[in-house]
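Troubleshooting log. The previous structure file for this entry was overwritten by mistake, so regenerating from the original sequence record. Sequence copied from the archived sheet and checked twice against the printout by T.R.
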Amino acid sequence: MSSKTRSSRKTVRCVVGAAALLLRCAGPAWCGSTAPQPIATFSIVAYDSLAEEWGVAVQSRFLAVGAVVPCAKADVGAVASQAWGNPNFGPQALEMMSRGISADSALQTVLAADSNREYRQVGIVDWNGRAATFTGQLCQAWAGGITGRGYCVQGNILAGDSVVKGMAAAFEGADGPLARRLIAALHGGQRYGGDKRGMQSAALLVVSKDGGYSGFNDRMIDLRVDDHSEPIKELERLLDLHDKTFGAGAYVRIGLAAKREGKRDQAELLMARAMAVAERSNDDPQLLNAIAWEFAISDHRLPDALRLATRAVALAPNDADILDTQAECYARLGDYRKAVEVERRAWGLSGNADFKRKIDEWKRKITRPYRVD
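Regenerated output below.
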């Protein structure tokens, strides 16, 4: 682990110098215009190599920080640009990394082209998990960053260096999906004082190939708390809702794609995460049914699929679609008698012709030997 910080003497000069500049203008490029508000914040940029996810989490005493700081692209990397952040850094660095340029080289290139780089703070992680962080000499104290294996943390106008150290320790000590570990890092920074001006907004961005809504893009998680007294806690609450609404389905979809590509470890990890969401939401029949159905039609984790479907039926015994899922699980496991019995209930409730077709198909298979899973 390496550390990049400003000395206390240099920090004093930075604060005095920055204060004087703010009285006259926001910086060399902004003299004579309205001074932009510095994005005093702390952030983490990280990569999960097994799940193949890249992400950024950020908190600030700044309105709608998620609209400015985070930027990421699946299979390429992730970027956080803050302090007097340059929003162009994210797209520029991602474009370079998409051509095989490393995080550190991309960082040096974007900084070299910016005459106001000493006001900037940037963190980057590339497609291979290599991390780089930069804190300009004119960022307001306390300002600095840390790089670790597969991540970097950085912040400015912080309570002290313990903030970024606390973030790094919390991230490294956390288990579970990348999103949860990123949130843990924010909590870790806040425990040591965070942004010394207070809290206002937070954001979480996680990308994975085809991880977005219905697989149409790579934005697996894109959550923002724009103005709140407890933005990190609110972000965590939104993540809980996201897991139930979108996350479990995304894990199944990406996991099945990984299975087809022969990435067995990644597939099992993501399926296990979908199961974890289901187990945390054991009172939601529609969520349980959705996961059970995806498992069943892909012939994956069939005993788990049946268990989830059976729990969903117990919660919603007159839901024909849920009964159809349970019947599908029984049929895929080779218990055609039980499949026919359950599907008859579904057909009786709905009159769905497809259910009747499956009943006839499964009845013809009853005399065949049952499948042993």
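The chain has two domains: 2-232, 293-365. Archived copy saved in two places this time.
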